[in-house]
Amino acid sequence: MDTTATTDFVHIYEPGSDAARSPLLLLHGTGGDERDLLGLGRAVAPGATLLSPRGKVLEGPMPRFFRRLSEGVFDEDDLHRRTHELADFVETARERYGLAQPVALGFSNGANIAASLLLLRPQVLAGAALLRAMSPFAEPPEADLSGKRVLILSGAMDPIVPAADVGRLARTLSDNGASVDHRTLPAGHGLSQADINLLAGWFAA
Ligand code: MLT
């Protein structure tokens, strides 16, 4: 495992043992860091290479990937800027580590910036698993997402993500050509065993 800040983002790069697996871009939630999703990544995609940056925006002491004005209300100018900054980091890391196009595995704020990456810089990701995601843009841009697989896992009792909002995200991504599998689980904003089982099946397919 290599923890480094020599490129733009503090990040962990963990080379995998299974070259057939796409690398995973792990994107943590608010208040998390680059270590948060390593265990989840290893559990649901055993042997995959892991690339895990830490969000550069601080909300008090809590790292995030972009600014928000209040819970669920995003600073879209900052979101645009931070999405391109993260996309540039992934491209630099791919060259540096010799990586194939990664699949994002994002939770909450990390899922939201992964959805934004798909829409603003679709060439950066092969696909994405979005856990407790919301629609990042009030007016989503168009993007060519054909050939990209997206799994969205929502919680029926999630107090942060309204069902209509994530439904709009699923529609936006599929209207732009992605192959979207959206499941709603009997869970809240936190992850459950059902999330892990569905993720493992989706990554194995
Ligand atoms: C966000 O700010 O991205 C969402 O409200 C989810 C969160 O991080 O709490």
UniProtKB/TrEMBL annotation:
Pfam families referenced in this protein's UniProt entry, alphabetically: Abhydrolase_1 (PF00561)
Superkingdom in the source lineage: Bacteria
All residue ranges annotated as the AB hydrolase-1 domain in the record: 82-145
Keyword Membrane: no
Keyword field: Hydrolase
GO molecular function terms noted in the UniProt entry: hydrolase activity
Gene3D superfamilies for the chain: alpha/beta hydrolase (3.40.50.1820)
InterPro entries: AB_hydrolase_1 (IPR000073), AB_hydrolase_fold (IPR029058)
The protein, known as: Alpha/beta hydrolase
Organism: Bosea massiliensis
Taxonomic classification: Bacteria, Pseudomonadati, Pseudomonadota, Alphaproteobacteria, Hyphomicrobiales
